[in-house]
Automatic annotation (TrEMBL):
Entry's localization field: Cell membrane
UniProt similarity note: Belongs to the UbiA prenyltransferase family. Protoheme IX farnesyltransferase subfamily.
Gene name per UniProt: ctaB
Source species taxonomy: Bacteria, Bacillati, Bacillota, Bacilli, Bacillales
A Gene Ontology BP annotation from the UniProt entry: heme O biosynthetic process
GO CC list: plasma membrane
Transmembrane segments: 21-46, 58-80, 106-123, 129-146, 153-173, 179-200, 240-268, 280-300
Record's protein name: Protoheme IX farnesyltransferase
Keywords noted in UniProt: Cell membrane, Heme biosynthesis, Membrane, Transferase, Transmembrane, Transmembrane helix
Length: 301
């Protein structure tokens, strides 16, 4: 009986540790970024005429490397933001706030993940590893340590790191110049401000309490709504640069853009800003998933 009780306790401890680790690395962000990384890699194989099965080693090192680099960056973000995370509802239960993980361990864990992830990317191409490190530097230093706490351009600066994953995927296969990874980068870069500004509207008072100068906190909802629409408008022409993916993709991508723009414009008439921000946030998540999965589907031979 004592052995059974001990086994149960051990299982609970292990479950708690795993939960903390997944929280520290922000597993949701890692998973969503792996979709865009894989799409970049898949399209590179498609456009270069390389086979998927014959390049499984590249697929493995690219995806594992990307996942570890992103996870490590998120862990470092948790370490740095531990002094303000307790002020926000969505971050106050993070292990670095609750004390279930020591800050120094999180710091070294993050550094280790970035290092191992970079080595994994080096098994593909040097360019992929460099692009990954650019993402790390942008997210950890330029966004988390500087712009997030100092100015309303923090979302734009952070968007650079979020736009890197599909480029990592592409350059892991082909590190020569090509228009496709540039468009993938721009798609991700332009997608993020309306996505995160909608979230910032939903969490406006939390950001205000934490002293984070998000756009809706500093300039209000009216300005934020206009900015969101401008960023969405900037997305409209990008799918046409990927005309080589075929008419079905262009139709789906354009419908997604027009639908998002229509919902964005509706915000100027809606009285419930929080409801609108929630709809915009949910739409943005579905937009990204559908868009990048469609790229893969239309290129399956």
């Amino acid at each position: 009986m004592a052995d059974v009780v001990e086994d149960v306790k051990t299982a609970k401890i292990q479950s708690g540790v795993l939960k903390d680790v997944l929280s520290v690395v922000k597993i949701g962000i890692v998973n969503s970024n792996l979709i865009t990384t894989f799409t970049g890699l898949w399209l590179a194989l498609y456009f270069t005429g390389e086979g998927f099965l014959s390049n499984l080693h590249i697929v493995f090192f690219a995806l594992v490397g990307s996942a570890l680099v992103i996870a490590g960056s998120c862990a470092l973000n948790n370490f740095i933001d531990r002094d303000i995370d307790h002020l926000m509802e969505r971050t106050k239960s993070r292990p670095t706030v609750s004390g279930s993980m020591e800050p120094k361990r999180v710091l070294w864990f993050g550094i280790l993940l970035v290092a191992v992830g970079t080595l994994s990317l080096l098994m593909t191409t040097v360019t992929a590893a460099v692009v990954g490190l650019i993402g790390v530097v942008t997210y950890v230093f330029l966004y988390t340590m500087w712009s997030k706490r100092s100015n309303t351009f923090n979302t734009v600066i952070g968007s650079v790191s979020g736009a890197v994953p599909p480029v990592i995927g592409w350059t892991a296969v082909d590190d020569t110049f090509h228009i496709v990874p540039i468009i993938l980068f721009l798609l991700m870069f332009l997608w993020q401000p309306p996505h995160f500004l909608a979230l910032a509207m939903k969490r406006c008072e939390e950001y205000r309490a934490a002293g984070i100068p998000m756009l809706p906190v500093v300039h209000g909802f009216a300005v934020t709504k206009r900015q969101i629409v401008i960023w969405i408008v900037a997305l409209l022409p990008l799918p046409f640069y990927l005309f080589s993916l075929g008419v079905p993709f262009l139709v789906i991508a354009t419908l997604l853009n027009v639908g998002w723009l229509a919902l964005g414009l509706a915000g100027f008439k809606m009285k419930d800003d929080m409801k609108w921000a929630k709809w915009m946030f949910i739409y943005s998540l579905n937009y990204l998933t559908i868009l990048f999965v469609t790229m893969v589907i239309v290129t399956i031979d």
